[in-house]
Amino acid sequence: MLIHDQSRTGRRATAQAPLSSPEVNDIPEALRRRTAPALPEVSEMQAVRHYTRLSQKNFSIDTHFYPLGSCTMKYNPRACNSLAMLPGFLARHPMAPETHSQGLMACLFDLQEILKQVTGMHAVSLAPSAGAQGEFAGVAMIRAYHQARGDQARTEILVPDAAHGTNPASAVMCGFKAREIPTGPDGDVDIQALQAAVGPQTAGIMLTNPSTVGVFDRNIQAIARSVHDAGGLLYYDGANLNAILGKVRPGDMGFDVIHMNLHKTFSTPHGGGGPGAGPVGVSKRLEPYLPVPLVARDGDDYHWLTESERPETIGRLTAFGGNMGILLRAYIYARMLGREGMGRVSEFATLNANYLMARLREAGFEAAYPERRASHEFIITLKREARELGVNAMDFAKRLLDHGYHAPTTYFPLLVPECLLIEPTESETKEDLDGFVEAMIAIRREAKEDPEKVKSAPHTMPVRRLDDVRAARHLDLAWRPAANEGPHG
Amino acid sequence: MLIHDQSRTGRRATAQAPLSSPEVNDIPEALRRRTAPALPEVSEMQAVRHYTRLSQKNFSIDTHFYPLGSCTMKYNPRACNSLAMLPGFLARHPMAPETHSQGLMACLFDLQEILKQVTGMHAVSLAPSAGAQGEFAGVAMIRAYHQARGDQARTEILVPDAAHGTNPASAVMCGFKAREIPTGPDGDVDIQALQAAVGPQTAGIMLTNPSTVGVFDRNIQAIARSVHDAGGLLYYDGANLNAILGKVRPGDMGFDVIHMNLHKTFSTPHGGGGPGAGPVGVSKRLEPYLPVPLVARDGDDYHWLTESERPETIGRLTAFGGNMGILLRAYIYARMLGREGMGRVSEFATLNANYLMARLREAGFEAAYPERRASHEFIITLKREARELGVNAMDFAKRLLDHGYHAPTTYFPLLVPECLLIEPTESETKEDLDGFVEAMIAIRREAKEDPEKVKSAPHTMPVRRLDDVRAARHLDLAWRPAANEGPHG
Amino acid sequence: MPFVPHTQDDIAAMLAAIGAPSIDALFDEIPEALRIGELDAIPAGMSEMDVTRLMHKRANTDGQPLCFIGAGAYDHHVPAAVWQIATRGEFYSAYTPYQAEASQGTLQLLYEFQSMMTALTGLDASNASLYDGASALAEAILMAVRANRKVKSTKVLLPRTLHPAYRRAVRSIVEPQGIELIEAPFDPETGQTHPAQLEAAAGNAELAAVVINQPNFFGVLEDVDALTDWAHARNALALAVVNPVALALLSPPGEWGDTGADIACGEAQPLGMPLSSGGPYAGFLCCKMALVRQLPGRIAGRTVDLDGKPGFTLTLQAREQHIRRGKATSNICTNQGLLVTAATIHMALLGAAGLERVAAACHNNTRALSEMLCAIPGVEPLFSSPIFHEQALRLPTPAANLLGALAAENLLGGFDLAADYPELGSAILVCATEMRTEEEMQGYRDKLARIVATVDRAA
Amino acid sequence: MPFVPHTQDDIAAMLAAIGAPSIDALFDEIPEALRIGELDAIPAGMSEMDVTRLMHKRANTDGQPLCFIGAGAYDHHVPAAVWQIATRGEFYSAYTPYQAEASQGTLQLLYEFQSMMTALTGLDASNASLYDGASALAEAILMAVRANRKVKSTKVLLPRTLHPAYRRAVRSIVEPQGIELIEAPFDPETGQTHPAQLEAAAGNAELAAVVINQPNFFGVLEDVDALTDWAHARNALALAVVNPVALALLSPPGEWGDTGADIACGEAQPLGMPLSSGGPYAGFLCCKMALVRQLPGRIAGRTVDLDGKPGFTLTLQAREQHIRRGKATSNICTNQGLLVTAATIHMALLGAAGLERVAAACHNNTRALSEMLCAIPGVEPLFSSPIFHEQALRLPTPAANLLGALAAENLLGGFDLAADYPELGSAILVCATEMRTEEEMQGYRDKLARIVATVDRAA
């Protein structure tokens, strides 16, 4: 039932608005609203009960193993939430002067420094609100760099076929053409194809390493050389930074620019789809172009660097400079981890992934890259199960829900058929990984004995499989007071 | 699965303890523990996930209609929680000096005044931690009063048969004999029986009004006269105060002492069984005996009244003077209600109860006291359904869970057979009451068509009906590391 | 090992199953030369207790000044229920609802959010949020350029009365795609942007869209009907930038002019998000149904399951980067889900009547404050037009000095207009939301009067 | 109408269904003379925003002094997860699990709490909590008097080293039932209670129980083995009062003496409950299995459902007032469920190793503080015995003056022993938990040294 269905004319959560109804008599009638917006009219308890019950319909890290590949669904420490929401941070107006922002700015400055350290980059801006905005900022800086040099010919960004969809989309948003590079059979970028593709038109390359097929590209140094030699720059998509935290640094690999998904590696909440935070780090030559604001320290004082101090900046990406509350959460997490904890993140994320891959292979599932070490994630291809049992990756995914596990990422990367991209993260126990293996085995058994059960899964969720085609064809995107003729009506 | 079942030797929620393990070398070996206690060893995420999932197995006000008679399961405003947990209150040590307690004491003083007003009593102590402790305090004051007058003969407390079990138990805890008075066929106390029972041995009477059968005792003035004339005192069990808040006051009815369940009428959380708070109010003659501490005001300063200022007090009931955090929540609620809101509580609680009773009667269910107005609660007797369909009150109760409603109180009060004591509270909507009626009708239909379904209910809860007899015979009260041979092992 | 559950026994058993001698061996495909040692410059790990102490200290560093700044972020009351529910683990630690059946909580909530935003804006469709108001406007502009079928132009007209930070962010985001932003001036008397000024700024250029903000950055109310009709007459799309709380009182974009604005966007912060030092907030973006396939960002839709039971799912995913890659409507991936959760609960708790009371209280407070301040010699309203909940004031001496002196007394007196609008002289923007009491406003007046008098004496 | 959802239409329809002309008519059975009018003396209702402002002001009235008081309530770190989970609606707003099938969350949690408390105390059974430590001791004494089959006595021996507030509360609660409490003195040198002193206090009286606290109120460690054996030799039950955090380091009551204490109780506040101005806390009460049917309060048990699946239910309800009424083991009805929820999560997060670290850190901090303070002339330890995490100190001038001077500098320097133990002269009890830093302790020393010196000079 929608909250709207619980609405009754005149019902109120009275305590939540000013008790008296002030008259407004100085706004011209023509500019005033004629009919009240059709927001629900419910009591405070109705709202609390409705949204509490809705929440219970979600899988989440706090309730379920959630091995969604490329999303790093690890534990979000509860202290990060409560401390980032201290009134001193929450009540601060974004336009408050520097004199009244030193506590916040100290945290941001420290975070910039920590991120510089773990990425090996020369400078960091915390401004981007999410990974995709970090990508945009990164590519925009590449663009600004070439433009500043008068190098107008560079119109192409190279993107491996295994890349996140955001990579080509970000390149296009910055006015580039995205040119796809194939992945070799061993999971590494096809280096010949790459070398054939680079040239004076190459603005740069966007790489995830370890890549989305779950392996570390062993030719990274050769790739870097090749692109740099051609005058292009290297962009590091930090989506998989969790796999190498404290072990290898993008800066050392030769990358010129990187974004980090703090909601992955630095464990800020995913919040049902966001907010994220996508700080960017750069090599020295890109520093002038970093998005603003940045925090600088001068003795014990912190101050903002904005457009006036940074005339070559690619600019501002949001009105007020970023997702501060998320940056604070990442900072708190980083301080709890400390220097020793950083490396442990990648070690145990990698241990968990390799263990889970080994167990699944032992159980007869096919790894996409069996000869390779898994990074913090790996791919299982269910093409044999699909062929022999008629049960595909989506069916496995849906049936896993019934077994109490969130599904891995399905059908991504696109180059592996019937693929499950599995990322267990370092915070899961061996017992939970074992339980997941048991569930996979059980589902394969079910697929043999009772395939319909798997193909029509899930059976124990609040709804059964949903009609996505109908959703797209018969658009029902908002409740309407009069014409609530949807399936719900 | 128990949290203990998730334990592995050496696992830690590392961030939660001091990072270094300090040596303690000045405690004699003989006094030291030899083996570590068998507490679970789990990661932070395991604990968070486990208790989050456990919570989801509960019905609660925030998720379900919870018409548990005599428990006043109304909405607990969320602001009461967050404001009572402000650091200024939470971090205050109970032994902090008065100079550093003025903010808290201002709230407590105000709450005392508000409670005096709504009960019509002369003075209030906030000390008792719950209703039962309030009862104890109240009866102890009656005892102290008679003792102070040298009136040693008063050994009996009269208690109607419909009373809460705490009433006779509290009387006994204070060294009295509890003498039961029957309820008349109309739900009022049998006044003849009462008059026959009072005498020089009568220390007092404990009454709930409206009583637990859900009606207001119309003879209350006669009862008061009768007990007072015999030299006894009147104790008001405030469990049902929600029914008369802002309408009638126990002090005006002639009561000498009253306890209030703030977790009922003043909407503090029930917390899965507590904490409660059971302030007591008294008439002038009992004031010297009030439990300590009390808060007094002197100009703008607040100070404690303790044993030294109140030499005749019945004393202290807990080490530190009461459930302050609960008192704060009640205070916040009271301030949001304000003087107008108090009366609305009883008005709409009463409207909801009478409406629900009317609807259920209309649907063919039998009210225990059909000729009477319901107070904020009322009784349905299912004796006909039990006789004709073989489905009893417990079966209805369990089946209601499947229909998404918490069961009403069952088999209490004891004098009504197959009884459901139903208290909808003022915070529920008409729609929810209608839904409850529909569920009751549906269950009766099921009882006719498929009685087994009702008798073996619930079917959709985390467990089916539990074996209480086994629980009491084969006591399994704690997990044991070695001999975890329980049904769970 | 904080947040790592592995025991020594676990590690040994797992390595054995893998067939690796050590955890380090799992990294053996990484070129040795790239491996790093200790990250010495990063501080050692802290316990939760220690980091709690640190963060309390940091949070308490700056006091909590009394705030009379609005300028795009508003200090409204947020019901206690909002964040207690939004931070429940099931909302807080879930991800984008890729598996719809296991994410009905988030999905239904998004659908309800979309329903509420379309109700507020008077438009047909809403997405499930963007990063903030400014980036939402940038996406709206890109969307308008793609969507305008009548005019093939990359020119967009936007008023100089639009929030300066929005103008900057929009520029950063849309210019790499070749969008040309033309700024229209405002009437220095009224603070409004009239059709004549749009006309003058645009000349004969074809326009993909015209941005119309209500109220504008100065709090001034624009004649949105005329502006919308002007845009449509030029075959440009009318793109509204609005404050959602203001919409409880003001005419919704869907009803502006003869046929309504085509797109509306803005900042959802006033709907249950604390000031939070600037973020995370959430941008909203609504449009007419005809434009929905150009709408960027996640969109939840209602459909049915195999049993015909209603349920919710992400829809129109063919627009998005994970399907369309380089041809997507945007590179956007995440939305601001947690903030949308808060906003949805907030709107459910306030309702239309509650939001209207909040809007009216803010408006009247700002008016009252403005009147109090204008009793001080040399302080006067900058513009003559009707306003909503934000007032531009002229000050007798440089604003920076006065604001600095107020800040030294722990009061943030407003937003200094000097840097962005030097032509206005010494001027600030003040705002008093429903949170400000009469007493606090009088305190502001008294402080400012004293400071102005001191400066006068000094001069 | 805050918290009332009724619309005018609802009210009309409901009254029609009832057949009543007005809501007022529903109260027509109440004698007219008793009906009241306006409650004028109660203030008018406030919005949540207004009450938020009021409560923030009240909460900020007293600053947050630095606290070196222990004396039965301890300022420990509470993991952020504890209260974020405990205040989830499903725990916060549920009631006593009367319907077990719809309350498995609470019931399993109670069972886990009982398991943890029996592990800490080394006893067999635990109830699901009582109001606080003092009332738990009172119930323990009543229980011991009922349960002791060897001795028909209502006399209970309890040491003067027991917390004074506990002694007062116990007296209030048990004396109405005719229990006679005999106080045993302590050794003024060691601060301990020796068997000889028990002997002297008890004389030849038969004793139902002997109360033994470890550590005692002074922080001093008692020879609990000898005391337990002495009690048993007199056929009295040995009743332990213990600090649950201390039990991570100290011998558990179940192992005291030859056969262990029979009952253990105490205050669960150190397990995840903030100081909270004194409450709500939670008392715990554990016992040997033989005594379980005399144990008061709720008890959860593990059993099976109709399918043989394990589940949890309240058990042994035949002890309780709602069944046995006047013959119940106690009048107790509620427990401190929400606090038990917090304590259980807290213990799960800390584990035995974590609790031991906390205990050791508190102990060492208190030792370090004591040594610092004892470097000030005239400050010295009051007793010679080993202590745990609380130290009694003799001061050179009246404690009230010194503590008052410290409080004026926003530091709570300890608990003044003068009122309860006048024979000890000027003496205080200090405690520095794991929350106190070296710097804070040095600050205390410096302040005290300065104040003592000032008083000296004045003298």
Automatic annotation (TrEMBL), chains A, B:
E.C. code: 1.4.4.2
- A biological process from GO: glycine decarboxylation via glycine cleavage system
Q: One GO molecular-function annotation for this sequence?
A: glycine binding
Domain Aminotransferase class V, by residue range, is 151-271
> Which residue numbers delimit the Glycine dehydrogenase C-terminal domain?
346-449
Q: Which residues carry this modification: N6-(pyridoxal phosphate)lysine?
A: 264
Q: Is Acetylation among the key words of this record?
A: no
Q: Which reaction does it catalyse?
A: N(6)-[(R)-lipoyl]-L-lysyl-[glycine-cleavage complex H protein] + glycine + H(+) = N(6)-[(R)-S(8)-aminomethyldihydrolipoyl]-L-lysyl-[glycine-cleavage complex H protein] + CO2
Subunit text: The glycine cleavage system is composed of four proteins: P, T, L and H. In this organism, the P 'protein' is a heterodimer of two subunits.
Its biological purpose: The glycine cleavage system catalyzes the degradation of glycine. The P protein binds the alpha-amino group of glycine through its pyridoxal phosphate cofactor; CO(2) is released and the remaining methylamine moiety is then transferred to the lipoamide cofactor of the H protein.
Give the protein name, as stated in the record. Answer: Probable glycine dehydrogenase (decarboxylating) subunit 2
From TrEMBL, chains C, D:
Q: Keyword Transit peptide, does the record have it? A: no
Q: Which Pfam families match?
A: GDC-P
- This protein's source sits in the domain of life called Bacteria
UniProt entry tagged with the keyword Protease: no
Its BP terms in the Gene Ontology are: glycine decarboxylation via glycine cleavage system; nucleoside metabolic process
Record text on subunit structure and interactions: The glycine cleavage system is composed of four proteins: P, T, L and H. In this organism, the P 'protein' is a heterodimer of two subunits.
* Similarity comment: family membership: Belongs to the GcvP family. N-terminal subunit subfamily.
The protein, known as: Probable glycine dehydrogenase (decarboxylating) subunit 1
